[in-house]
Structures are given as structure tokens and as C-alpha cells.
């Protein structure tokens, strides 16, 4: 079998089984032969028999569990692996596979426990450290994930996967120089690795280095000329003179795929090209076609979103009576910028973070992760979730208060001096305004609003990678998300939550007056440098990475009027 002669290996295995049908190891080896021949059901049968015959090795349990995970039978896989861990407690691979299975079942705290056990048996094994970093990332503990990957890379400095992940985590925690260094190292080691090149391209985009990003996407396109993601990015970055040729390539690629996701991405690329060529009607047609396909490929569970928001708001009545002693002001005052996505949060963050006393954190997802961990705390323990018990939420938000300074420290260490403020611009934090007031007593919260029609158009035009934004592919989804946003803001206003509301339109037409108002609210002295976002060299990880680098302008106000038939129900309602 090791020589690749699978028919011969299968013949020998069957012959051996005729002589020794009850040999546990032989049944296991036969299962491996079946697996190599892509006969997975047969492999399961032989692995199962090996276990029933009292296998004295852990491998049958591991292989059978992995097949069960492929079939999404998480409970069966976990049961097998727990039994294996009891029988073979010193087998590190059992514990690492148990960690993998726990991650697959969204049992992240358990996964972390099991991978730590594996590492205690096989210290510094790269695969185990990488799995631990993934788990820490999933738990929202990005500083610890970075520390784990740093340990991995100290032992294996050329590990491509680890370099890619740490580059992403550096970028996500607004450490662009470190992100670029890791991405460049990975690309130098593997200059033909598409993932490494794409990672490097995105690091260039975040820093506004579009020429370097374009060159990398062109290299990827030459190597693999029908990749939807690559073509979608080239539609945005390519020189105008090359767009007609690129459009023909996209049309050819569309004819070669039946995947709704690929077709949607390629139609979006066509829409982008038409927009850049000022062919508005054609762009709108391609955009509609793109989002119809993407809505099929990436459906959104709006009921789950509504259930989450309802739980967050209803739980506040109990949480608001909790003692505030554990929530002391942080050394650096957090400023939270929030609102509907595509409402101007990135621009506002750029303007405020230009101030010398403010360090930008980017979009820190830890608040939402804390609520997720609280809502699933009982599930991680294998129990039914009790949504009425306030203890998991209090524990999770206490942990958030403790962890938040670690995120602040990651960016503060690269700041010219110790900043008095940090700014966190996760838009979806509008769901948690009252909690943020409670957890961070000295924090400042700024809600930015924008014309609902312009916001809807921008959402509909933008391709988001994250599943949380799948609602943007349909007019109905955008309407429902807007209703949830309105529900949350109305609730927090009724609770007398402390936040300042400013409008995008005022920000771009009356920037000094609006920023002075914000600075007064934040106890931050106004600095004229804040009027020049184009002079801010910080990285931008959001879909606004091009617009937010420009000088202040009002070009996006009432832009929906140029696309009046694109979202008829939204655009047809009174302002």
C-alpha cells in the first residue's frame, strides 16, 4: 500500500483476513486499505470490527472518529474518542483528535482542554500548537492565539500555515507591520503558494498599497485564470485599460462553472467593471444577478439573529442590577464607534484615530464573542442552555473586562507614546450599548447614522466574506437587519444609555463642527489633523479601505438616486 499498489494491497488484505478474520490489527490495516481506495463505508466496518476485537492501539478509534466527523456525526465521534482517551491516556494523538472533534461540535472550551492535554504529552508539536491557536481564535482570545503561534514559529520558523494565521491575527489586532512581515516571509518561502500570495495581497490592500496587491493578484490569475476571488479583486484593482480584456475572461469563467457562489462572485466582478466604466445600468443588472446567486449559495438565518438580539435586550434587565465593583475604569479609555455596516464607521474611526492621543484597535469582535460564549456556556458543558440564568453572562462579561486591556496593549506598544484612548469600531456593537456602559464605566460610545437608502445601496454592492453579513445579498435581508438595528437603538435610548449620535452627512459636510462635538463628548481636545484622513497611514481591514483613505468629500450622499430601480421597496419608501 505504501508503494501505491492499492489493488495488490487489497488482494493481500482479503487473503490475510480469510486466514485470521479475528485479528484486530489486520482488520485495522484492511480499513486503511479501504480508506486509500476511497471506500469509506467499508473502512468504517473494518475499523469498527478492529475495535470490537479489542484493538490494543488507538488508531482504529481515531480513524473511525474522523470518518464520523466527515459524516457530521459529532456525538458518535466524541463518544469514540472519549473511550479511546480512557483506554490510551498517554496517546497524544487521541487527545488532539478529541480537540479537533470538539471544535467541530463548537465545544471550544473542551477543545482547548484536550489540546492542552495533547501538548503535555507531546510538547511543542507544531500541529498541536496550530490547533490550539485556532481554538483560541475561535474563543475570541486573539492575544493568546498570537502567543501560541509565536511559540510554534520559534520551533518551526518556516511553517506556512502558522505564518498565514499569525499574519491574519496581527492584521485583525491592528498590528500591520507584524502582519506584513509574517505574510512576506510566507510568500518568500512558498512563492507559488496561492494562499500565501493572497494573504500578502490583502496585507498590501490594508495598507493602501494597491499596486503591489494588484501585481500579486495578476500573478495568481496567470497561474489559475478562472478563480472567482482573484477575478473579483482584479475587477477592483486592475488598470482601466485592461478592464475589457478582464471582462472577457470573467465571461469565459462564468461559462465554465455551475457553482452559485462562483457565479455570484463573477457577476459581482462584472458589476464592478461596469461601475468603473460608468455603465450604471449594466452594473445594476450584474449586481442583481450576483446577489441572486449569492443569496442561494450563502443563505442567512435572520431568525437566529432576531433570537440573539431579543435575548441580549431581555437579559439586560437582570444584568443592569449586577454590582459594578468588578468593572473599574481601564487605564486607557475605550471609545466605541458603532452603527449599521456601511454607515461611515470606518471613516469616523480614521478621523478620530488620527489624533495623537488615540490608538486604533480596528474591529474588535470580542464583545460579540463574549455574548456567544455566555449563550453557549451550558452547551459546552454538554447541558441544555438555560437562557434565564444570569451567571454565564456575568462571567463572560467580567472576563471581557479583564481581557480588553490585552487588546489595547497590542496596539499601544506600537504607538509613538502611551495613548490615553483606544478606539474600537465594531459596527455590530450597537446591540450591546447598555452593557458597554456598564462594563467600561468611563467609555465613550459614538453611534453614527447614515441615510437608510444610501446604507442599503452600499450593503447591496459590497461583498462580505463573513457569514454574519449574508443578509446583504437580498433586499428583504437588508430590510430585516435594519429593523433589528432600529429595535436595538430604540431600546437603548429608552434605557437612557449613554451614547452620542452623529450623522455621516454632517461628518462629511461639517467635519470640524462634528468632530469638535465628538471631542467634547470624549473629553478629548480637538486637533486639526483629524480633518485629514488621507494623512492617516494606519491599516484598514474593512470594505472601506479605498474610500476612507480619500480626502473628506460628500460624493456618497444621495448616491442611491443613481440606482433607483435596484432596491425598489427600500428606495420607494419616504426618507
What does this structure look like?
The protein is mainly α and 575 residues long. It has helices at residues 6-19, 24-36, 40-52, 59-70, 74-87, 92-104, 108-121, 126-138, 142-155, 160-172, 176-189, 194-206, 210-223, 228-237, 243-255, 260-276, 280-297, 302-319, 345-353, 366-375, 377-380, 391-412, 433-439, 452-461, 475-494, 504-509, 511-522, 568-571; strands at 333-338, 358-362, 421-424, 444-449, 500-503. The protein has a five-stranded parallel β-sheet, with helices on both faces. The longest helix has 22 residues, at 391-412.
State the gist of this model.
The chain is mainly alpha-helical. The chain is 62% helix and 4% strand.
Topology:
Layout: H1 6-19, H2 24-36, H3 40-52, H4 59-70, H5 74-87, H6 92-104, H7 108-121, H8 126-138, H9 142-155, H10 160-172, H11 176-189, H12 194-206, H13 210-223, H14 228-237, H15 243-255, H16 260-276, H17 280-297, H18 302-319, E1 333-338, H19 345-353, E2 358-362, H20 366-375, H21 377-380, H22 391-412, E3 421-424, H23 433-439, E4 444-449, H24 452-461, H25 475-494, E5 500-503, H26 504-509, H27 511-522, H28 568-571
Parallel strand pairs: 1-3, 1-4, 2-3, 4-5
Helix pairs in contact: 1-2, 2-3, 3-4, 4-5, 4-6, 5-6, 6-7, 7-8, 8-9, 9-10, 10-11, 10-12, 11-12, 12-13, 13-14, 14-15, 14-16, 15-16, 16-17, 18-25, 20-22, 24-25
Amino acid at each position: 500500500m505504501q508503494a501505491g499498489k492499492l489493488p495488490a494491497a487489497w488482494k493481500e488484505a482479503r487473503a490475510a483476513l480469510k486466514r485470521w478474520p479475528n485479528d484486530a490489527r489486520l482488520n485495522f490495516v484492511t480499513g486503511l486499505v479501504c480508506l486509500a481506495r476511497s471506500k469509506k463505508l467499508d473502512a468504517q466496518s473494518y475499523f469498527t470490527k478492529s475495535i470490537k476485537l479489542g484493538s490494543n492501539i488507538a488508531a482504529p478509534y481515531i480513524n473511525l472518529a474522523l470518518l464520523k466527523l466527515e459524516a457530521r456525526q459529532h456525538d458518535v465521534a466524541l463518544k469514540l474518542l472519549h473511550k479511546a482517551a480512557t483506554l490510551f491516556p498517554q496517546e497524544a494523538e487521541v487527545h488532539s483528535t478529541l480537540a479537533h472533534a470538539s471544535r467541530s461540535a463548537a465545544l471550544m472550551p473542551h477543545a482547548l482542554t484536550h489540546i492542552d492535554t495533547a501538548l503535555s504529552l507531546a510538547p511543542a508539536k507544531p500541529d498541536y500548537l496550530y490547533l490550539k491557536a485556532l481554538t483560541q481564535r475561535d474563543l475570541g482570545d486573539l492575544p493568546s492565539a498570537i502567543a501560541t503561534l509565536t511559540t510554534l514559529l520559534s520551533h518551526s520558523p518556516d511553517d506556512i500555515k502558522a505564518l498565514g494565521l499569525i499574519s491574519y491575527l496581527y492584521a485583525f489586532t491592528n498590528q500591520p507591520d507584524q502582519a506584513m512581515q509574517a505574510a512576506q516571509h510566507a510568500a518568500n518561502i512558498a512563492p507559488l503558494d496561492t494562499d500565501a500570495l493572497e494573504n500578502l495581497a490583502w496585507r498590501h490592500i490594508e495598507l493602501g498599497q494597491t499596486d503591489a496587491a494588484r501585481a500579486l493578484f495578476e500573478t495568481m490569475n496567470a497561474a489559475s485564470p478562472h478563480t472567482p476571488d482573484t477575478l473579483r479583486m482584479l475587477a477592483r484593482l486592475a488598470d482601466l485599460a485592461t478592464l475589457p480584456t478582464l471582462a472577457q475572461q470573467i465571461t469565459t469563467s462564468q461559462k465554465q462553472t455551475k457553482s452559485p457562489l462562483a457565479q455570484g462572485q463573477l457577476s459581482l466582478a462584472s458589476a464592478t467593471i461596469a461601475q468603473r466604466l460608468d455603465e450604471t445600468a449594466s452594473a445594476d443588472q450584474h449586481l442583481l444577478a450576483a446577489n441572486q446567486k449569492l443569496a442561494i449559495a450563502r443563505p442567512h438565518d435572520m431568525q437566529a439573529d432576531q433570537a440573539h438580539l431579543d435575548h441580549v435586550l431581555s437579559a439586560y434587565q437582570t444584568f443592569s442590577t449586577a454590582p459594578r465593583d468588578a468593572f473599574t475604569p481601564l487605564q486607557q479609555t475605550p471609545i466605541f464607534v458603532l452603527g449599521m455596516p456601511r454607515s461611515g464607521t470606518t471613516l469616523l474611526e480614521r478621523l478620530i484615530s488620527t489624533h495623537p492621543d488615540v490608538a486604533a484597535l480596528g474591529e474588535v469582535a470580542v464583545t460579540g464573542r463574549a455574548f456567544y460564549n455566555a449563550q453557549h456556556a451550558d452547551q459546552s458543558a454538554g447541558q441544555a442552555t438555560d437562557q434565564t440564568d444570569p451567571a454565564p453572562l456575568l462571567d463572560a462579561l467580567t472576563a471581557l473586562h479583564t481581557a480588553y486591556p490585552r487588546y489595547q496593549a497590542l496596539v499601544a506598544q506600537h504607538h509613538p507614546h502611551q495613548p490615553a484612548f483606544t478606539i474600537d469600531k465594531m459596527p455590530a456593537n450597537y446591540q450591546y450599548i447598555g452593557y458597554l456602559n456598564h462594563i467600561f464605566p468611563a467609555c465613550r460610545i459614538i453611534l453614527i447614522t447614515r441615510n437608510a437608502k444610501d446604507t442599503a445601496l452600499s450593503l447591496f454592492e459590497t461583498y462580505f466574506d463573513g457569514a454574519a453579513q449574508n443578509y446583504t445579498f437580498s433586499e428583504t435581508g437588508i430590510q430585516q437587519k435594519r429593523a433589528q438595528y432600529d429595535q436595538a437603538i430604540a431600546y437603548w435610548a429608552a434605557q437612557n444609555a449613554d451614547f452620542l449620535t452623529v450623522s455621516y452627512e454632517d461628518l462629511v459636510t461639517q467635519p470640524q463642527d462634528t468632530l469638535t462635538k465628538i471631542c467634547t463628548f470624549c473629553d478629548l481636545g480637538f486637533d486639526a489633523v483629524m480633518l485629514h484622513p488621507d494623512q492617516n497611514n494606519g491599516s484598514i481591514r474593512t470594505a472601506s479601505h479605498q474610500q476612507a483613505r480619500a480626502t473628506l468629500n460628500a460624493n456618497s450622499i444621495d448616491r442611491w438616486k443613481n440606482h433607483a430601480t435596484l432596491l425598489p421597496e427600500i428606495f420607494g419608501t419616504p426618507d
